[in-house]
Design goal:
Number of strands of chain C: 1
Helix content of chain B: 55-70%
Chains: A alpha/beta (992), B mainly alpha (465), C mainly alpha (217)
Largest sheet of chain B: none
Order of helices and strands of chain B: HHHHHHHHHHHHHHH
Shape of chain C: extended
Radius of gyration of chain C: 25 Å
Oligomer: heterotrimer
Distance between the termini of chain B: 14 Å
Chain lengths: 992, 465, 217
């Protein structure tokens, strides 16, 4: 957008209401249209320009985005009052400037035209409903409050997700004090009940584990996924990367952590592990028990029983021995983590192991539950369901979550909800729960809210609005105040009042504190305080392998949160819907993941519809093969098949919640699988996962690295004298460390947000027309440790390779373009001039990396998918990046707009560009620092340091394209004892 | 060569005096052109082809409306039918010129009775081919940016790009074939002018005859110009398809980056071109009553050329496989393996059968001299060559260097519609041109008459040695 | 049979052919001239504004500095347009009831922004940064023309890519000493010797100035 348009935006943004946002969006919408002979463009200056606001200059505000009861600390970029991009908050230890895909996508959901715009009253739940005013609601509320005052709130129930806002928790507490007969229930589909109950078994009270991966030298993940999606991902992944071989680490193997994973289904942690053992979930407790016994963590009597519990299979036993040996060697630097999907016993055993090794306080600390509300959510929701069934609930207030969709099926919550006479639902979207409540009240989007939030490490940060509410919505604080009889209170006042009370001190002191808190986004020194519990007590009984449920016939169906949609709350977000699942690369839906062996046995090919049957309940969904998954196990992701999630989210994939039981929320045994007949076209972005003997993802053993001379990746011979670097002001380059990449997809979403990359929709994805400039390729490494030949073999480990444009110095795409739309810049960028492109597509046909993306349809405007053409969405677009029309080739530019901005800033300040002055969107988002970008001329630059490392190599370097983007080979810190198995497996690499 | 008795190029009716012979010859050729009414069969054919042209119009309109997304393209297979059709049509557009120029300069007299309609075919095919690169563009209305002209953007085409060379090659080739075809036509237009009954006919033919009076001066200038053009034509026709080959060869996709491509494409073009010439020869001689002029001798000769062509094609395929193996690049080797055994292997084998195996039947003289056999085989070759173009375009792109980007190309209805439409357009234009212009060059076919033919005497059997 | 063509037909035909060729050539030349003409480029165009603002008066007569109204020109991509309040700093005292200024007063009263019509309008795929240009000695009037002499603001330059490139290829002749950058009237171009000195003074590297990404992203 040319500068003037921005100033126009500035003027409008000064008084931001819905109408102006739409006007604004209209202006932005003209981006592609007005390329030639525009209608005379207008300039709309302010009437009275606000102090300090400079048209055309983005501003950044620190805030937090809540996810399952934790606030992700972020800094949001805003152009003339339009939030356009989310970055991590570098001042917050839990972020360090990085984000996950969820945070990146938050800015899109803000502008979702499907958001609720006004209060709705439903005479008949499920019915259409009538639009009402807030006053109308408050009037109705008055009557109820009178009743509560008389009864002390009997029949009043408050249902929330675990609360991350201390202020909100305090408000609720106050409400409960006022209405003692009322009760606060909590539900979270992806909960940590198992972990807390495990802590209760081990320590007698619910304690929460905060791992310190950086301090660990040997980590064992018992079906735990610390690197997987979720609120903890960013913090733990950063922590973990610090302990891994790669960019920052010394070259000797000692200093680097070794990661073991024992799990049923492939997880990001399992993919990152040096050694992974695929076990049936029913065998994992036995494994844990045997390991605990091996390490002497289970005293006396339990010992022999546990020893006997060793898993079957030669390889599994050898694996167990190796892990035990390694853990023992690491001592206090060891860490055993149990996953939320494992029964409490396993958590208790993990505590015993850590306690025995003296790891508690070193590689992990135990803290009181950080989130507000009842610690255990399953009993809480069960109690509410019971009350509902008994008809004891007269008034129900549901804040956040979506219980009607994701509560355990056996509680039949959705069936009981409509019976509640006065039910209030506060949520930004009219979801399944809202449909069943009398009142649906529109809630602020987090980016419109005043609040506060605790992050995963217990630190508290303030949440401040980036934009005036687009619609007639309120925040949870304001609703709580209304329930307490103060409907006039604004979120801002409530928040300030709460903290003024907590802070004390004089007004001016508080103001300083307040300003600092808003600026930093994190309050000083407020991390969760570790507690030192008594010695861990081992669990009473240890499940024997092959006993109990394992003996049950049929498959064990495992439920996992979706890496992109989480528990379903993000189903309405098109960026996340189109975000490829890390392993199957499936978008816009879920599938039944089966180990290739099982799938073959059932004659289920990829895309075949499978029928999943568990006493009565039936699902039909397509099959994808999941290499490395344990036998006898089927995995399905939750969060799909939403019934009320707008044009983008409704009816995508299959809802697996109906099969979920409160008794065992993560696993359903005795499930019958059969072919349902028929196939479904899978919308996946990649369908070939073998490397076919090509040198694509290099993997080197850490021990071997030490023997490698530096600079082994020499340039291919050339007939011409080749200067090391062509002349120019800078020479931009990038190095991607494949050891650090955990495949979390944050970079992909960040790139999409930064570069106005359109969503194409499932049909186009299925046709192979994804637009992501930066993709993450997944390849399968040779089978690992299958020498034992038993089903428990580790299987094929996925290797992740982020592939942006390689910015080749000898770019094949440049000489073939007939109109010079693909050209080289002085700084070595391989630039693409959208407005010059006529769309011969010759550049992509000759690009060996096939990283260019062509607008086959007018994805950005005329032929946008679902409601994505809505003008409101256009307010999100980055004004510094052209929106590309149909028929034009586009590609990764190393975020040239950021390079240019940084360059101009440096010149204005009269100083040269320092290393780190330019940070690409992908680099900024990456939690593990896998991506380094900088000037190859700057000897001090991190990118230069990495290029000199012995395991730096160019992808397809032998083609002579001389890419500026190179890779660090994936380093594997393998255990010599188990390495033998790997070589045994390596011989059997087949063509997939 | 076969041991059979040499076939006559011309089958003159017996008892034909030289004086009459000339008249008879011109009459035979001009007859169908001037005959009225046009005939039910012709109208039927025109109607059918027009329907096909309508399909073309619709699919082009839809293309401009919705963009190239209506085709089966994807991020890996960014090229599809449009490019394949282009290469195929331009190939067909080669034969006419080869026949006219090469055979003219090598004094193959028998060419005289087939060169005219071959040139017509060339012209139409090349013109249709020229459409595809434009339709193929993402923003076709900007195709003129490939043309070097001083503009207010101070931008010029990117001269290293083979696509720019393509533009010049096609434009040049089109201009040449038009001029060459028209020059050859002038004397015949004159004779049509003189024979036309209607005043309009005389006017129309006369206008384009440019006042040709058959004076010695005219013939001298014509002959000089015609031969000069012929000499120019040969390098041109070679260059055109070499450049098309370079479109692919300069990309580093496996299976494209081969130095053999330019000659490979030229031979392929000649091969498919000659095949199309025979394909057309059969209906033309049948429906225009030209059996006397387009004789078994021609089928025999072209049959031999096809055999030769098939052998060269076989050689190029073998070379491709060999270099893939000998070069040792994994991607190249696996591409060949994929072609021979992979998902699309059936198509590849069909292509091999059509382009190599089929033509071997023509070693057998009796096959060469049975028009319908040659017709069938040539048809097979046409299909085979089209398959080859499609496979060249899609195989390399769908099995390139990074397996993560391996995707298959699946043509949509609109892909097929465009192909069918272009074929119909070809048929329609050919029907019109052959109906109103002589399908055989009158003045050149006269050279086929026996040199020494005593007035009133009989024509010796087997006219031209 | 009767001759269908008159004797002179040949000459006629030749004439027609020559004429045809001539016409085609003429057509091409015409188009070429048209796209460069002010009609196409908008050079010299004056567009109607809500208020007939006169730079001639404010800058030429009153002597306001460009930066008084276009405040962010030295620091931002956009030069910035004055808010209504800025106008009213003077016009709350001067011409308080001038009919021409009614829209300005209204804007303040109704808190509704003025809607000026853009005079110098670059295509939206062009990213132009005012601050970079003035910082490097490109004067306001170098592109905007002698604004101080414009009663009604007009587009002074063709604003074609050609025009941009001419300067990006060889900036020297277009540079000014720092004190002349904000001169509201056309200043004589500096002699070559001084131009070279200015290039050094501003530290301008022409290498990379014509990279596409300088203006297109």
């Amino acid at each position: 957008m040319s500068g003037g348009t921005s100033s126009g935006a500035g003027g409008a943004a000064a008084r931001m209401d819905r109408r102006t946002v739409l006007k604004l969006a209209g202006g932005a919408a003209l981006l592609p249209a007005v390329a030639c002979s525009p209608p005379r463009e207008q300039i709309v200056p302010y009437v009275d320009m606000p102090e300090g606001l400079v048209p055309g200059r983005p501003r950044h505000y620190a805030t937090a985005l809540p996810l399952t009861g934790y606030g992700a600390p972020v800094v949001v970029e805003s152009h003339q009052g339009r939030p356009t991009k989310v970055e991590g908050n570098a001042r917050h230890p839990a972020s360090g400037g990085a984000t996950d895909a969820f945070a990146q996508a938050a800015v899109l959901s803000l502008y979702d035209p499907d958001r609720a715009r006004a209060p709705v009253w439903r005479g008949a739940p499920g019915g259409a409903g009538e639009i009402r005013s807030w006053d109308g609601f408050l009037g109705a509320l008055e009557g109820r409050r009178a009743a509560w005052d008389s009864t002390g709130g009997a029949g009043l129930r408050l249902l929330t997700t675990p609360v991350c806002s201390p202020t909100l928790a305090a408000q609720i507490a106050a409400l409960l004090r006022r209405y003692p007969a009322a009760r606060w229930d909590v539900w979270e589909p992806v909960n940590d009940d198992n972990a807390l109950q495990g802590a209760i078994q081990a320590f007698g009270r619910p304690l929460q584990v905060l791992p310190h991966l950086a301090a660990a030298r040997c980590v064992l993940a018992l079906d735990a996924d610390p690197l997987g999606p979720g609120p903890q991902q960013v913090a733990l992944a950063r922590d973990f990367a610090a302990a891994r071989p790669g960019g920052k680490q010394p070259r000797d193997g000692q200093a680097t952590a070794r990661l073991y994973a024992v799990e049923a289904a492939m997880s990001l942690t399992g993919a990152a592990a040096d050694h992974r053992l695929a076990l049936h979930p029913a065998d994992i407790p036995a494994f844990a028990a045997a390991l605990a016994a091996e390490l002497g963590a289970v005293p006396g009597a339990g010992m022999d029983a546990a020893r006997g519990a060793a898993p079957q299979g030669a390889h599994a036993r050898r694996f167990l021995a190796a892990v035990a040996e390694d853990l023992r060697a690491a001592g206090p630097a060891a860490l055993a983590l149990a996953g939320r999907t494992q029964p409490p016993e396993v958590h208790a055993l993990a505590h015993c192991i850590n306690d025995r090794l003296g790891a508690i306080g070193r590689t992990l600390s135990l803290v009181e539950p950080i989130r507000g509300g009842p610690a255990l959510v399953a009993p809480s929701i069960a109690a509410l369901a019971a009350d509902l069934a008994a008809g004891q609930v007269s008034d129900l207030v549901i804040l956040g979550g979506n219980p009607a969709y994701d509560a355990p099926a056996d509680l039949r919550l959705a069936a009981h909800l409509p019976a509640v006479p006065f039910s209030i639902r506060l949520s930004p979207w009219a979801d399944e729960t809202a449909m069943l409540c009398r009142w649906h009240l529109p809630e602020h989007h987090p980016l419109e809210t005043w609040s506060d939030a605790q992050s995963v490490d217990g630190r508290i940060g303030l949440v401040q609005p980036l934009i005036r509410p687009l619609f007639d919505s309120r925040s949870a604080h304001e609703l709580l105040a209304a329930l307490a009889g103060d409907p006039a209170a604004t979120g801002h006042d409530i928040l300030r009042a709460h903290w003024r009370e907590r802070q004390g001190g004089g007004p001016s002191a508080f103001e300083d504190w307040w300003i600092a808190a808003l600026r930093d986004g994190v309050l000083p020194g407020m991390a969760a305080i570790p507690v030192r519990p008594p010695a861990a007590v081992p669990p009473p009984a240890v499940a024997q392998p092959g006993t109990g449920d394992r003996a049950a016939p049929g498959f064990a169906l495992l439920f996992r949160p979706d890496p992109a949609l989480w528990d379903g709350r993000f189903a309405g977000n098109a960026w996340l819907q189109e975000l490829p699942e890390p392993f199957s690369k499936l978008t816009w839906g879920n599938a039944l993941q089966l180990a290739p062996g099982d799938a073959a046995a059932l004659a289920l090919d990829e895309g075949d519809l499978a029928r999943v049957e568990a006493d009565g309940a039936v699902l039909e969904l397509p099959v994808v093969h999941a290499p490395g998954q344990a036998g006898g196990v089927a995995v399905v992701h939750l969060g799909h098949g939403r019934r009320h999630a707008g044009p983008v989210g409704t009816g995508r994939g299959v809802d697996a919640y109906p099969l979920r039981r409160s008794a065992s929320p993560w696993r359903r045994d005795g499930v019958r699988l059969s072919a349902a007949g028929g196939r479904q076209l899978l919308a996946r972005t990649q369908s070939h996962f073998r490397q076919h003997g090509r040198d694509i993802v290099r993997e080197i053993d850490l021990a071997a690295l030490a023997r490698m001379p530096a600079g082994t990746d020499s340039l291919p011979a050339s007939l011409y004298p080749e200067p090391p670097l062509p002349p120019g002001p800078q020479a931009w380059g990038m190095v991607i460390d494949q050891s650090a990449c955990i495949g979390c997809n944050a970079c992909v979403t960040a790139c999409q947000a930064e570069n106005n990359i359109p969503v194409v929709g499932p049909e186009e994805v299925a046709l192979g027309r994804t637009m992501h400039w930066l993709r993450i390729d997944t390849y399968l490494a040779p089978p690992d440790g299958a020498a034992g030949g038993d089903g428990a073999a580790g299987g094929d480990r996925p290797l992740f390779q982020p592939v942006p444009c390689m910015q080749c110095e000898k770019a094949p795409c440049e000489p073939v373009c007939p109109v010079a739309a693909s050209v080289h810049t002085q700084a070595g960028l391989n630039a693409q001039v959208y407005n010059r492109c006529v769309g011969t597509r010759d550049c992509q046909s000759t690009c060996p990396y096939q990283v260019r993306r062509f607008n086959f349809r007018d994805y950005a405007a005329g032929q946008a998918y679902a409601n994505l053409g809505d003008p409101l969405y256009r307010a999100q677009r980055n004004p510094n990046v052209s929106v590309r029309p149909r028929g034009v080739m586009e590609k990764c530019t190393y975020c040239v707009q950021r390079i240019s901005a940084a360059g101009r800033e440096a010149e204005a300040a009269g100083r040269p560009l320092r290393d780190g002055a330019v940070v690409t969107a992908c680099q900024a988002a990456c939690p593990t620092g896998a991506i380094a970008f900088g000037d190859l001329r700057d000897p001090a630059a991190e990118v230069v340091r990495r290029k000199a490392l012995p395991h730096n190599y160019a992808l397809l370097g032998d083609l002579g394209t001389r890419p500026r983007t190179t890779y660090l080979a994936r380093l594997r810190h393998s255990n010599p004892v188990l390495a033998a198995d790997r070589t045994g497996g390596a011989e059997r690499e087949g063509e997939g | 060569m076969s041991g059979a008795a040499p076939l006559p190029v011309l089958r003159l009716p017996p008892d034909l005096a030289r004086a009459e012979a000339l008249g008879w010859l011109t009459g035979t050729i001009a007859g169908p052109v001037l005959r009225r009414p046009l005939g039910r069969l012709w109208w039927l054919a025109v109607g059918l082809s027009l329907a096909g042209c309508l399909l073309l119009a619709v699919s082009v309109a839809w293309l401009f409306l919705r963009g190239t997304g209506i085709w089966g393209l994807n991020s890996s297979n960014v090229w599809g039918f449009a490019v394949a059709n282009y290469v195929w049509w331009i190939g067909i557009g080669n034969a006419g010129t080869l026949i006219s120029c090469l055979l003219l300069l090598t004094r193959q007299h028998w060419r005289a009775s087939i060169n005219r309609y071959a040139e017509t075919m060339t012209l139409v095919a090349a013109a249709i081919a020229g459409l595809f690169p434009i339709l193929h563009l993402g923003r076709p209305w900007l195709f003129y940016w490939l043309v070097p002209y001083p503009n207010v953007m101070d931008l010029w085409p990117q001269w290293r790009s083979a696509l720019v060379w393509d533009l010049f090659a096609i434009a040049g080739y089109l201009t040449f074939s038009l001029l060459f075809w028209y020059t050859g036509l002038i004397p015949d237009l004159a004779s049509l002018r003189d024979r036309a009954r209607s005043r309009f006919g005389r006017l129309a033919y006369g206008l384009f005859a440019l006042g040709w009076r058959g004076a010695a001066r005219h013939w001298q200038a014509h002959d000089l110009f015609y031969r000069a053009m012929a000499a120019l034509g040969i390098p041109l026709v070679i260059s055109v398809h070499s450049v098309v080959g370079l479109d692919f060869a300069n990309a580093i996709a496996p299976g494209w980056n081969e130095s053999i491509f330019p000659p490979y494409f030229v031979v392929g073009a000649m091969y498919s071109g000659f095949a199309m010439v025979v394909t057309l020869a059969v209906p033309i001689r049948r429906f225009l009553g030209l059996e006397a002029l387009i004789t078994l001798r021609h089928f025999d000769a072209i049959g031999k050329i096809l055999v030769l062509g098939s052998l060269v094609m076989a050689a190029t395929y073998l070379t491709e496989w060999f270099t893939a193996w000998y070069g040792g690049a994994t991607a190249d080797r696996q591409l060949v393996a994929y072609r021979l055994t992979g998902g699309g292997a059936a198509v590849y084998w069909a292509m091999l059968v059509c382009n190599v195996a089929l033509a071997q039947i023509l070693w057998w003289p009796r096959a060469r001299r049975s028009p319908w056999t040659v017709f069938a085989i040539a048809g097979g070759i046409n299909i085979g060559m089209w398959l080859e173009r499609v496979l060249i375009v899609t195989d390399s792109l769908s099995r390139s260097h990074l397996p993560s980007q391996w995707r298959d190309f699946v043509p949509t209805f609109w892909d097929w519609a465009l192909l069918a439409g272009s074929l119909s357009l070809f048929a329609f234009v050919m029907l019109v041109l052959l109906r109103f212009l002589p399908a055989v060059s009158m003045h050149e076919s006269r050279t086929l008459l026996p040199p020494a033919m005593p007035p009133g005497g009989r024509a010796p059997a087997g006219a031209v040695p | 049979m009767a001759n269908v063509f008159p004797p002179g037909a040949d000459h006629l035909l030749r004439g027609v052919l020559i004429l045809g060729v001539g016409l085609i050539a003429a057509g091409i030349v015409t188009i070429g001239m048209l796209v460069r003409s002010p009609y196409a480029t908008g050079q010299g165009r004056v567009v109607p504004q809500p208020v007939p603002f006169s730079h001639l008066h404010h800058v030429g007569d009153v002597g306001l500095d460009c930066r008084y109204c276009h405040g962010s020109v030295e620091t931002e991509a956009t030069a910035g347009l004055p808010d209504t309040a800025t106008c009213m700093t003077c016009h709350s005292q001067l011409f308080t009831d001038a009919a021409a200024l009614a829209p300005v007063r209204q804007s303040l009263a109704l808190d509704r922004p003025l809607r000026w019509v853009r005079v110098n309008d670059l295509p939206d795929h062009v990213y132009f940064d005012h601050s970079m240009h003035v910082r490097n000695g490109v004067g306001c009037t170098t592109c905007h023309g002698p604004v101080g002499e414009m009663a009604l603001t007009r587009q002074a330059a063709p604003l074609t890519m050609q025009w941009c490139l001419a300067c990006h290829r060889d900036p020297a002749p277009h540079l000014r000493p720092p004190d002349a950058v904000f001169a509201p009237v056309a200043v004589p171009s500096v002699p070559p010797g001084q131009a070279a000195r200015l290039m050094r003074h501003y530290g301008i590297r022409t290498a990379g100035l014509t990279d596409c990404t300088v203006c297109h992203r």
